[in-house]
Write a structure and sequence with these properties.
6-stranded mixed β-sheet; 31% helix; alpha/beta; elongated
Length: 329
């Protein structure tokens, strides 16, 4: 279990993390979401004692990280897949970690096999692709067989097979009763993996709830209906006190309606339905809705594109201005 209480981090006048309080519980996969600059990486670094909080507290199974003896046996983490000595082989990289935490040499072979790197165990890490580096980082997180695991963007660089593998691995670890905490920008993948969500924006806690409740609370759900007997269905639904919106193209929508109830009403009145489908927002849509006011870096689709090369005439190039950064190519 990971417990945060009033966790705060300031860099000068900048508040990166602002009074965060939440608990990451065992037995489920907890997703950690937030826009760029929200404070996710800083929060995870403070969990591991890599950054010191300005205020507040974070505990790993009731203890501060720096008080843990052989910490890899308590918590395994992947924060940066490139955080390794490129001149070492995959095996020696893991062996160094194992020896520093009293982990037997045999465990190195086990985790290399788990992540599918046995065939390249003696190759230097600097020659690894991004996906192979991710697998090696995951092997390091698993090395101490810890009860708590943290992953920051674990699917970065993985192919579809690798993404499927890490998704099932995280679910399997949680099913064993372990605490699994994962941060990712891939909303579609998070929707398939996480059971619970912690969402932050500008360093503040925005949500701490189940996946289903998060989507329900931050999005519109409705029932989409198409029928060749539109007027008759409208009369039936209005008579039942159901508010219907006509959206054009012969499509009717009922906000928050129960599709089963609408189907039963249509059947009772012998109304033919061509479509009766409940519509729910995706995790991405719900996330965008909640964090709209917390996005720090906005791109603008209407920004004009630069002129193609050669479009300005030879003598129509803008003259350099004082203060421009002119460099020789």
């Amino acid at each position: 279990m990971i417990e945060l209480s009033g966790l705060t981090k300031r860099y000068g006048e900048k508040v990166a993390v602002n009074n965060l309080t939440f608990t990451v519980r065992p037995g489920i996969v907890t997703g950690f979401l937030g826009p760029n600059g929200a404070g996710k990486s800083t929060t995870m670094r403070m969990m591991l004692g890599l950054d010191r909080p300005t205020a507040g507290d974070v505990r790993i199974d009731g203890q501060h990280y720096d008080r843990l003896k052989d910490p890899l046996k308590y918590i395994g983490a992947l924060l940066d897949a490139k955080a390794m000595h490129g001149g070492r082989s995959a095996f020696n990289h893991l062996l160094c970690l194992a020896q520093s935490n009293g982990i037997p040499r045999s465990r190195v072979h086990e985790v290399l096999d788990t992540v599918g790197l046995t065939s390249v165990a003696r190759k230097k890490a600097k020659g690894f692709s991004l996906g192979m580096g991710q697998r090696l980082g995951i092997a390091g997180a698993l090395l101490g067989d810890p009860r708590i695991l943290m992953f920051d963007e674990p699917v970065n660089g993985l192919d579809p097979e690798g993404i499927h593998w890490i998704r099932n691995l995280m679910k399997s670890l949680a099913a064993q009763g372990r605490t699994v905490f994962v941060s990712s920008h891939l909303m579609s993948e998070m929707a398939l993996t996480a059971d619970h969500l912690v969402v932050i924006g500008q360093g503040r806690l925005l949500a701490d709830t189940s996946m289903a409740d998060f989507i329900a609370q931050n999005s519109r759900s409705h029932v989409r209906i198409r029928t060749p007997q539109r007027e008759r269905l409208l009369d039936v639904l209005h008579g039942a006190g159901i508010l219907v919106v006509e959206t054009g193209g012969g499509v009717l929508e009922v906000d928050g309606g129960k599709s089963e109830h609408i189907g039963e009403l249509a059947a009772q009145h012998q109304i033919v339905l061509h479509e009766l489908s409940p519509q729910r927002a995706s995790l991405e849509e719900a996330f965008m809705q909640l964090t709209a006011e917390s996005v720090e870096y906005h791109a603008h689709a209407d920004t004009p594109a630069p002129a193609p090369a050669g479009e300005l005439g030879r003598f129509e190039q803008p003259a350099p201005q004082w203060g421009d950064d002119w460099t020789r190519s």
